[in-house]
Write a structure and sequence with these properties.
The protein is built from 4 helices and 4 strands; from the N terminus they run H-E-H-E-H-E-H-E. By secondary structure, it is an alpha+beta fold.
């Protein structure tokens, strides 16, 4: 099984990923997002219910998702724009 943490980290390093609920919602609405990763405590009802892109629920909190993505802040949502060298889209 693919580790979502490792796949996300690779996508952040080699591809293009946007962070934050507003940026992620914008990427989904613009059709840029290939996949969305949301934390267990993501406040966005839009992202939880969207069907236009695959949404993967990260089992940890927004603090854990931020740390996993290598960010010094909490991240409730992330949109994968370009997967880079990661295999995250096959999750």
């Amino acid at each position: 099984m693919i580790d979502i943490g490792r796949a996300l980290k690779t996508a952040v390093q080699t591809g293009k990923v946007v962070f934050g609920v507003q940026q992620t919602e914008k990427a989904v609405k613009n059709g840029e997002a290939k996949m969305v990763v949301i934390s267990a405590n993501c406040p966005s009802q839009f992202l939880k219910t969207t069907t236009s892109v695959p949404v993967r629920q990260f089992e940890g909190s927004n603090m854990e998702l931020g740390a996993l993505a290598g960010k010094p802040f909490s991240v409730s949502a992330a949109a994968i724009i370009d997967k880079g060298a990661s295999n995250i889209l096959s999750l």
